[in-house]
Automatic annotation (TrEMBL):
<protein>
    <submittedName>
        <fullName>Putative DNA mismatch repair protein Msh6</fullName>
    </submittedName>
</protein>
<dbReference type="Pfam" id="PF00488">
    <property type="entry name" value="MutS_V"/>
</dbReference>
<dbReference type="InterPro" id="IPR000432">
    <property type="entry name" value="DNA_mismatch_repair_MutS_C"/>
</dbReference>
<dbReference type="InterPro" id="IPR045076">
    <property type="entry name" value="MutS"/>
</dbReference>
<keyword id="KW-0067">ATP-binding</keyword>
<dbReference type="GO" id="GO:0006298">
    <property type="term" value="P:mismatch repair"/>
</dbReference>
<keyword id="KW-0238">DNA-binding</keyword>
<dbReference type="InterPro" id="IPR027417">
    <property type="entry name" value="P-loop_NTPase"/>
</dbReference>
<dbReference type="GO" id="GO:0005524">
    <property type="term" value="F:ATP binding"/>
</dbReference>
<keyword id="KW-0547">Nucleotide-binding</keyword>
<dbReference type="GO" id="GO:0032301">
    <property type="term" value="C:MutSalpha complex"/>
</dbReference>
<comment type="similarity">
    <text>Belongs to the DNA mismatch repair MutS family.</text>
</comment>
<dbReference type="GO" id="GO:0030983">
    <property type="term" value="F:mismatched DNA binding"/>
</dbReference>
<dbReference type="GO" id="GO:0140664">
    <property type="term" value="F:ATP-dependent DNA damage sensor activity"/>
</dbReference>
<feature type="domain" description="DNA mismatch repair proteins mutS family">
    <location>
        <begin position="12"/>
        <end position="57"/>
    </location>
</feature>
Length: 94
């Protein structure tokens, strides 16, 4: 939502009000990159940030998979096999 001050002809008086809602858990979609673009950050900075975000998502996914595999090591062979299979499937990225 874009608000303007008393003088609608002066673009320096415009402000942006970002509306948000707090919920439990992680956010499935972030609008931070769109906000960065609206705020006028250079496209090169936004691209670099997207790359870093992808790297962090992969690191998090790998840690989750590792944790599941380690916790299943003492399990019966069938349970271990199933856990490993699910872990490998979750690592596939397009």
């Amino acid at each position: 939502m874009v608000e303007s001050g008393e003088d609608d002809n002066d673009p320096s008086q415009e402000t942006i009000t970002f509306l948000y809602k707090f919920t439990d858990g992680s956010c499935p979609k972030s609008y931070g990159f769109n906000v960065a673009r609206l705020a006028g950050l250079p496209e090169t900075v936004i691209r670099q940030a997207r790359g870093k975000a992808r790297e962090l998502e992969m690191i998090t996914l790998k840690k989750q998979v590792f944790s599941r595999v380690v916790s299943a090591v003492g399990a019966k062979p069938g349970v271990l096999r199933e856990t490993l299979s699910e872990a490998l499937k979750s690592l596939r990225v397009d």
